[in-house]
């Protein structure tokens, strides 16, 4: 669990504001592209915990499906889309703000958790739990 939280909070989400700042003219499109290209590695790093490796080897999670969901869910944040749309100079200034960077990071993390949960639940539904032998009476 500790590895999962570390992967989510520190690793690949540092990219979001840097990628957007580099090409702020289409900030929401750049955010979507960043999620699209970097999400699979994040899903993999979240799920490579040694304790869950056997289960996920037998019942893999479709990271493309999870990442498509993350991209769609993130893009549904109307407030964020409106905030990142407009005059290039204004949008660039907004993106340079640490609070905007934090908001974007946690928007993507929130989307990731909401999208990976159904995938994990689908995996768990496939797992056959071992039945213990019946005790002799």
What does this protein structure show overall?
There is one protein chain. The chain has 8 helices and no strands. Mean pLDDT is 77; it is low at 1-15. Helices cover 74% and strands 0% of the residues. It is mostly helical.
Tell me the β content: under 5%
Provide the helix percentage.
over 70%
Strand segment count: 0
Largest sheet: none
- Secondary-structure element string: HHHHHHHH
Shape: elongated
The low-confidence runs, each spanning 5 or more residues with pLDDT under 50, are 1-15
Would you tell me the structural class of the helices and strands?
Answer: mainly alpha
User: Radius of gyration over alpha carbons?
Assistant: 19 Å
The average pLDDT value, as a whole number, equals 77
Compute the separation of the termini in Å.
40 Å
Number of helices: 8
Question: What is this structure, in a nutshell?
Answer:
With 137 residues, this protein is mainly α.
Strand-helix topology:
Layout: H1 2-10, H2 15-22, H3 27-47, H4 53-58, H5 63-75, H6 78-83, H7 88-96, H8 98-126
